[in-house]
Amino acid sequence: MSMEIVVFVVLALAAMVSGWLVFRVDSMARATFSLLGSFLAVACLMLLLASEFLFAITFLMMIGEMVIMVLYMIAFMMNPAGLNPMNMVHQPRWAAAAGIVTFLVLASVILVTDWPVSEANPPADVTAAIGHELLGGSMLIFETAGVTLLTGMIAVMAMAARRGRFGDAIQVQREDDDGGGHDHGGHH
Amino acid sequence: MHRARHFAFGRPRAFPVVGLGGVEPWRELLLHRQLSLGRGPRDADLLVLSGEIPTDWGNTLRALFETMALPRLVLYVAPGADTDPLPGLPPGYTASSVEGIDWTLLWERLLDSQGPSARALLADQPPTPWRGRGDHGQGGEGMMGGTPYGRPMAMTMEDPDQLALDDVPTALGPHFPGLPSGLYLGLRLQGDRVRQCEGVENRFPSQSPPPGSGHREPALRARAREAVPVADLEQARLRSHLGWLADLLDLCDRPGLAMRLREARKDLDSHALRRLLDRAESRQLYYQTRNIGVISSAQARQWRLAGPVARASGLKLDTRNHDPAYRELGFQPVVERGGDVWSRCRVRIRECYQSLDLLDRAGDAHTRAPEGARGSFLDTAGGGLDTPSARNLAALQPGLAGLEWHEAVLFVGSLDLDTEEAAWR
Amino acid sequence: MNYGPVNWLAPPLALVLVILGVAWLAWVNRLAGDLARGRVSLETLMGPPRDMLRDLHKEFRLTERPDLALWLGAPLLLLTLTMAALTVLPLSPDWVGADSSVGVVFFTAMFALTLVAAYWAGWGPNSKYPLIAGYRFVGLMLAYEMPLAITVIAVALPAESLSVSSIVATQQAAYWNALTQPLGLVIYLLCALAVPFWGPFNVVNAPELAGGALVELSGAPKLLWRFGQYALLLTTSAFAVPLFFGGGAGPWWPAPVWSLVKILLVSGALVALGHGLGRLRLDRFMWWAWVVLIPLSLLNLFLIGLLILIWPGLAGK
Amino acid sequence: MYTTALLYALAGLLFGLALLALGRVLRFGVITTEPARQPFESGMDPQVHAWNRFHVRYLNYTLIFLLFDMEMVYMYPWAVVFLDVGWKAFMEMGMFITILLLGILYTWREGAFRWD
Q1: pTM for the structure as a whole
Q2: Contact D33 B153 (CB under 8 A)
Q3: Residue B375 sits in the same domain as residue B299
Q4: What residues does each domain of chain C span?
Q5: Which of B395, B354, B388 is nearest to B373 (CA)?
Q6: What is the pLDDT of residues D25-49, one digit of tens each?
C-alpha cells in the first residue's frame, strides 16, 4: 500500500511540476514537451487504477498529438524559441486566486464526500471488458463516434485544404472578391 | 592512448573545398582508401583544399575551419603546391599530388594536440555583441527585436497560403557537400520551401581559361578553330558526365553506385560502364527525380540555356549536329522533352552511351565543334568567351522559386554547373 | 496491488544483448555498403570499431545558442525508449523482461517516442539544416504510424490478446502470422524501416541536408545517436519475430536461441536492404501511405478477420 | 511489470550517460570560442537564428491524422474480443472503418493529400 502512495505522489508531483513549467519556460518547444511530460505522468497514474490499456493508449496518443501541437505552437507564436524572455501569463493575480479557490473547493469535496466503496472486483482483463462494452451496451456511442469523426474530417478538410476539387481555394475567393461572378458553393 | 587515437583516426573524414583545377584531385581523393567522406565540417577531421584556392575565400575558409571539432587539419592538394594554401589558415599538410601524401606524417600533424590546428583560430567575439545589452542582458528587445545571443530572429512575410509565417534567409552554398564549390545561393525559406532565390554568386574570380584547360575541356581548343580528335572530345564528355552522375547519386543517397561509377571513370572500360549506367538509369532514380525543377522549352530558350540542360527541355541545341565529322559518324543529338531533373539525368546517361559508341567508331576523326560536356563554347559580342556553365547559371534564380529543399538541392545538382568554367571570360 | 516480481537480472542482460546486436548491425551495414561500393577488405571488419573509437575521441562542439537539454536528450531518449520497448519482447515464455497484457500497445507507444527524439535532435542545435530534418520526420510519422498500428492489431486478432507472449503462443499452436498475413508482414517491415528512419526513409540524416540532424553532431553524442538508431532498428525488426515468425519456434535448438537467430537475420536483412533501395520522396510517400498503405493494412485486417471467423483453426481454436 | 520496464529504460539511460561521460574523458580537446560554435550554413555566416515560425506544408495530414488516430482507441479492445463476439464484431468494426474510410476517400477526392 505504501509503495502505491509513493508512486502516486511522485507521478502527481511530476505532472504538476511539468504542468507548471509549461508557463515558466520561454521556448514553445520546451513548453509543449513539458505539457507532454505532464500528460505522460497522468497516463502512468492510470496504472494505479489497474488500467494498463488506458495507460498505454493515452501514452501512445498523447505523443502524436503533442508533437502535432508543437508544429502549430511554433508556427503561430511570435518568438517561438523564447530567445527574448517573455511572460505568457495574463492577469496572474486573478488566475492565482481562481486556481487556489478551485483547488480548495475540489479538495474539500474530496475530503467531505462519503465515497461509496465498490464491492465488485475489477474485471480480470480490463481491455476485454472495454471491448465487450463497446460491442454491447455502448455500441451506439461507438458508431456515433465514427460518424462524428467523419464529420470532423470533412469539416477540417473543407476549411483547411487550400485546394479542393474546384481548384485553388484562395484563388477562387479572390476571383469572387473581384466580382468575378463564380459561385462555387462551399468555398465562401 | 596515442595508439588508440592512431587507430581511431586511421581513415580521417574529409570535408572538401574545391578551388581552381581542384575537381580531379578531389575525385581522386574520394577514391582513396585512406580517406572517408564526411557530411558537414563539424564532424570532419580534414579540411581538404583541392586546387588553387582564390585568395578572397580566406575569411570563409577560416570560419569554416574554425567550426571543425578537434582534432582537425588542413590538407592542401594542388599541383605544384609547396607552400601553405592561404595566409590565416593554420599550416597543415601540403602535397602536390594525391600519391605524394605521406599519411604517417599527416596523422602525426592531425593528432598533435599542441599543434597550431588544435588552438582557436579566431578571436572570441560573437557575431554581434550582445552580453549585457537589452532588457534581460541577452541582447534582445521586446518580443522579436534586437540580436538575442548575437543574431536577430527571422521576420514574417505573407506566404501563398495567406499565413504570415517566418521568412528565413538561408544559404545554399558556397560549400554545400555535394554541390559545386564557390556557388553561393541566397535563399529565402518558408519552412522548407524556397520562397525566392535572392542572389546567385559565383565566387570564383573572373579570368581567362588558364593554360592547360584545353586538356580538360577539348571543346575550348575546338572553339579556337583547332581541329580536335573526336575521341578527345567524347572522352572528356564521358568523364564529365560520369563524375556528375556520381555526385548526383551521392545526393540521392546511393553512395555505393556513385563510388563504382567513380572507379569505372578512371579507365573508361566500356563494358563495365554500360553495366553501371544500366543500373543507374533505374526506376528508383526516376521516382526520386521526376517532376522536379521543370524547365519548359520556352524558358530554356529565353534563359539561353546550354548543352544537356537545354536538350533535356526539348531544344535540339548541339553544335555537333552541324559538324561534318560528326555527321559522318551518324550523330543525332540526344533530346528529352520533360525538362525535369529526371530528363537531365536521362539526357546525360544517354549521352554517355552515345559517347561510348562514338569512341568505338571515331578512329582518328577530327572536329571543330566547340561542344563541351556542358554545352557549346561561344563568343560574346565583344569577342570574349561565353561558357555554357555561365549561361546555365541563369536558370537558378527563376528555377529555384517554389521548390522544396530537397528538390532545390537536386535541381542545382542536375544543372551540372562548373563554377570555375562559369568564371572564364 | 501486485506489481509482480521484479526481474533484476533482465535489464543488464538485455543491454548487453542490444550492444551485441548493434555491433552485428554495424558490421552488416558496413559489409553491405562495401559490397555496394565494390571494395570489401580488411577495413570492412575494422571500420565499425574504428568509427566508434573515432567518435569517442572527437570533440563534441556546442553550437552558439543550442537548446542543450533537448539536443542531448534526443540520443538519450532514443536509447531509453528502445530499451523500454524491449521489456515486452519475449525470447521464449521464460526469457522475457516482463509480459504485459497490453504489450503490443506498449511497444507501439515506445516507438512513437522516436518522434519526440527526432524532433529534439532537429530543434536542439538551433541550426537550419537539422531543423528541416526534424520537421521532415514528423511528416514521415504521419505516414507510417497508422499502417503500423493497424498491422499490429491484425496480428493480435487471432491471439485474442494484446500480450506479445500470447501472440507467440497462438502462432505455435496454429500457423505463423507470416503465412496467414503476408501482406501484414510486408507492411510491418516497411514500418520497421521507417520508425528508425533507415534506408529509403532516411529523412533525418539526409545527404540533401548535408547530414540533417548529424550536421552539428560530433563526438560522443553523435556516437550515441547512431547507436540509438541501430538499437531502434534492431528492436523494430526484433518484434517482427514474435509477431510474425513464431517467436522461438524451431527444431533442435532451445527457444531463446531460435529467437535470437531470427532477430539477427531479420534485422540484418533490413539493414542490408537499406542500401541500394534509394530514397522515397517524403511528399509522395505520405500520399501513398494514406491512399494506398492504410487501405491495404485495413484490407489485411479484414482478410484475417474473415479467415479466422470462417476457419477458427487458423487461430488455433 | 512496469518496474521492470522502468529498469530497462534506466539501463538504457545510464548506458547513454556513461558513453557521454566516456567521450568527455577521451575527447581530444575543446574549443569554446564564439566563432568555433557557428552553426553550419554552407560556410556562410547565418544571418538569423535558425529557430523560426516554421511553415510545415503537410498541415492537412496532421488534421486527418488527429481524427483517424482515434480509431485505434476502439480497435485495440475490439481486437481482443473479436473471436469471442464473432460476426457481430466483424460487422460493427466494418461499419466503423467504412465510415472513417469515407473521410479518407473525401480527402483524396478533394485532392487535399498534398503538401500545400
Answers
A1: 0.93
A2: no
A3: yes
A4: 10-315
A5: B388
A6: 999 999 999 999 999 999 899 999 9
Residues of B with CB below 8 A from A75's CB?
A: 163, 165
DSSP secondary structure string, C257-314?
A: HHHHHHHHHHHHHHHHHTSSS----HHHHHHHIIIIIHHHHHHHHHHHHHHHHH-GGG
Residue linked to cell 473479436: D82
Which chains neighbour B (Cβ–Cβ under 8 Å, 3 or more pairs)? A, C, D
Higher pLDDT, residue A101 or B82:
A101
Same-domain status, B225 and B362: yes
Residues 201-230 (C) with a CB less than 8 A from some CB of A: none
B285 with B361, same domain? yes
Do residues C58 and D27 make contact, with C-beta atoms less than 8 angstroms apart? Answer: yes
A83: contact with B, CB 8 A cutoff: yes
Q: What is the CATH number of the domain that holds B409?
A: 1.10.645.10
Q: What is the model's pLDDT at position A186?
A: 37
Residues of C in contact with A52 (CB under 8 A): 100-102
Cis amide linkage into residue B174, ω under 30° from 0: yes
Mark which residues 26-85 of D lie under 8 Å from A by CB: 49, 51-56, 59-60, 62-74, 76-82, 84-85
Instruction: Give every CB contact of residue A157 below 8 A, 6+ residues apart in sequence.
Output: D60, D63, D64, D106, D107, D110, D112
The answer to whether A108 faces chain B, any CB pair under 8 Å, is no
Number of residues that this document lists for chain C: 317
Average pLDDT, chain B: 90
Query: So where are chain D's domains?
Result: 2-109
Contact status, residue B138 vs residue B149, Cβ threshold 8 Å:
yes
CATH match of D2-109 with 1.20.58.1610: yes
Any CB–CB contact under 8 A between D28 and chain C?
Answer: yes
Cα–Cα distance, B176 to B196 (Å, whole number): 19
